[in-house]
């Protein structure tokens, strides 16, 4: 899969360049490879090229892939980043390392109850609706502090930070606006005493804007694996 290896390299270079422009250490930006809709073999190839963190959106698809890649489990970090219904939380609590898409307290409470004894805490981010559309999931910015404090008190979860999926925007300046809003909210929550270290923002089309505004984890699918085909 020469394209995949080349793409992965190109994405790493985009991160490094954006970090340089921002005056940041490129190692302060983690790369999450979003493998939804792509086969386990592609994940295996990216893993062989040194990629360790992978993001999935759909529970059933993800579980099939985790099974196919069970031999790599110790060296892969699995991140759940899609909308999560309350009747689908159990396998996510049992098998993932991270969940970025906590959009209500109830989901966090279920994940906390269902996280098995003996596993490390499940790392979680609160998804925030920074673009304000009714259709987008995520807590409203004004609700985020209450939700975050409640989650931080759950013993089997470890609240790491905030996640957003801003609306597409044309220019990098426009792209920076919602990313900046998420970072300012992150700074306020930290100032209020929450020990957050993760700002999960930036996708294939707005990676640079996100890194300029302080992203510590970018979630990149298309630019690594290619265009997604949802027909099957
Ligand atoms: C699909 C997806 C991504 C990756 O998007 P690309 O534009 O393909 O890079 C990132 N985050 C979330 C939450 C996604 O659902």
UniProtKB/TrEMBL annotation:
Alanine racemase N-terminal domain boundaries: 7-228
Biological function: Pyridoxal 5'-phosphate (PLP)-binding protein, which is involved in PLP homeostasis.
Keywords associated with the record: Pyridoxal phosphate
Organism, as annotated: Paraburkholderia edwinii
Top-rank lineage group of the source organism: Bacteria
Family the entry assigns: Belongs to the pyridoxal phosphate-binding protein YggS/PROSC family.
Official protein name in the record: Pyridoxal phosphate homeostasis protein
Residue numbers bearing the N6-(pyridoxal phosphate)lysine modification: 36
Keyword Endoplasmic reticulum in annotation: no
